Amino acid sequence: SPLEGTYLDHRILVLPPNTQGIAQLALMEMAAEHDLTAMGHNTADYLHTLIELKKLAFADRDRWVADPEFADIPVEKLLDADYLQRRAVNFGANAAEDVLPGIDGPVATNVRQGDADDSGDTVYITAVDQWGNAVSWIQSLFASFGSGLLEPETGVVLQNRGSLFTLDPNHPNVVAPGKRPYHTLTPLMALNRDGSLAFTLGTPGGDSQTQSLIQIVNNVFLFGMTPQAAIEAPRFRSYNGLRVDFEDRIPAGVLSNLGARGHEPRVIHGWTATFGGAHMIRVEPSGTLTAAADPRREAYAMAY
User: Fold this and answer.
1) Helix, strand, or coil here: 249?
2) Taking the mean position of all CA atoms in its chain, how far away is CA 292?
3) Is residue 134 part of a domain?
4) Which of 28, 48, 133, 241 could form a disulfide with 7 if both were Cys (CB 3.0 to 4.6 A apart)?
């Protein structure tokens, strides 16, 4: 069963652990505590807020997400509304380098997701039909050619997501036989209050998935963009520590402001897979389906 949260008057459905879907909901719930519209699209205040909230969401993610059949993950506590309201204001005017989880346990080494997803090993597909049936689906080998093992009867190449296990025996994501590793795949589906389909959305990109998805959703429902414009709008990608990548269409003055706050901005030129390759299908109020695809990767939007 999916995890469910609420954001911008929509019911947001994501995958449960062992995925980072829990971080997507936490990030959105915390973002809802701030007046992002008043800050303005891609202003320094807006970007600083989202970057710092991402760090808070990821600190809890890195501390707890694992295979729930092997670990006791405090999902209800991590998504508790009162907890997230308190956590949402737990950052300052300057960039934080080290962010601690809000719900702690035994001392353990955080999981650190690599950037292998940028190599083009992940695919996201979404489809919606005339009756409102919908699929939001993502598959990944993790690294190029995955484990390098091919199932001879089907030709399916096996993934190597086991790379994301830890060897720390005190961490819930410690490697074990028959256990699923933590992973980043975060397909998203959103419903209206009445339970009807609102939109589907997803992207490859490892850690950038949760970051890209909230930026795209904000672009549509806070800043009035079409799905295509929302996907094409310039994005950021925050890494561990202070480093943040920005697309070169974000004004230099904004980046200077963020640098003065302690962030370490790096400008990425052109349209690159660093920021994902999103697809979105929105059900318009009229019932018309609007599809959008990302020029950053080999992505397509088609009607039939």
Assistant:
1) coil
2) 18
3) yes
4) 28
In whole angstroms, what is the distance from residue 51 CA to residue 278 CA?
Answer: 19
Place of tokens 């939007």: 301
From first to last of its 304 residues, what are the pLDDT tens digits of the chain? 999 999 999 999 999 999 999 999 999 999 999 999 999 999 999 999 999 999 999 999 999 999 999 999 999 999 999 999 999 999 999 999 999 999 975 444 545 544 444 566 899 999 999 998 999 999 999 888 899 999 999 999 999 999 999 999 999 999 999 999 999 999 999 999 999 999 999 999 999 999 999 999 999 999 999 999 999 999 999 999 999 999 999 999 999 999 999 999 999 999 999 999 999 999 998 999 999 999 999 999 999 8
Structure tokens at 197: 């389909």
Indicate which CATH number applies to the domain containing 122.
Answer: 3.60.20.40
Helix (H) or strand (E) holding 31: helix 21-31
Domain boundaries, position 47 = 3-96+113-293
How many domains does the structure of the chain reveal?
1
Phi and psi at residue 57, to the nearest 5° = -65, -40
Is residue 122 among the annotated active site residues? yes
Contacts of 211 by beta carbon, 8 Å cutoff, 6+ apart: 27, 50, 54, 235, 236, 237, 238
- Spatial separation of the C-alpha atoms in residues 12 and 41, rounded to whole Å: 22
Terminal C-alpha separation, the chain: 30
Is position 302 within any domain?
no
Catalytic residue among 19, 49, 122, 200: 122
